[in-house]
Amino acid sequence: MTLKERAKKLKVDIPTIFLAMRDQDTPLPAKILAMITVGYALSPIDLIPDFIPVLGYLDDVILLPFLILLTLKCIPEDIYAKHHQAAEHLWEDGKPKKWYYALPIVCIWLLVFVLILKMIWK
User: Structurally, how many domains does the chain consist of?
Assistant: First the structure.
């Protein structure tokens, strides 16, 4: 599988995991793992910052695909098939333009900002 094919697969796997996470029939361990995977995939904060040479990109190249693979193994096949089909057509008209998807990330950055200010003003 070429790098381009893998990248295209990731564009479908992450929305598939997100949709399966919201499904009532998905087992609880798979939902928890899906929350971690989707949260990490969408988070601007990496485990290893990208500005560190070589190591900074290892989490994106190794950790994220590993989390996706592990999560997909935990999701039952019938639920995966249902949501994979929906995820393939999810972005045909472009990326979703729902601003509230950014709220968790904005909240994280606000929390970091407030904590930094508290540390400075002590």
Answer: 1
Task: Tell me whether residue 114 is in a domain.
Answer: no
25's CB contacts (< 8 A; 6+ apart) are 76, 79
Decide if 97 contacts 36 (C-beta within 8 A): no
Sign of CA dihedral 46, 63, 103, 92: positive
Provide the token pair at 79. 């639920």
Give the separation between CA 89 and CA 9, rounded to whole angstroms.
13
What tokens were used for 55? 């190591």
- 120 vs 113: CA distance, rounded Å: 11
- Taking each helix axis as running N to C, give the angle between helix 28-42 and helix 64-74, from 0 to 180 degrees, rounded to the nearest 10: 160
pTM of structure: 0.67
**67 within a domain of the structure (yes/no):** yes
| 121 is a domain residue | no
Q: Give mean pLDDT in consecutive 10-residue pieces for the chain, a chain of 122 residues.
A: 74 88 92 88 71 74 86 94 84 60 77 90 78
Q: Which domain holds residue 85?
A: 3-97
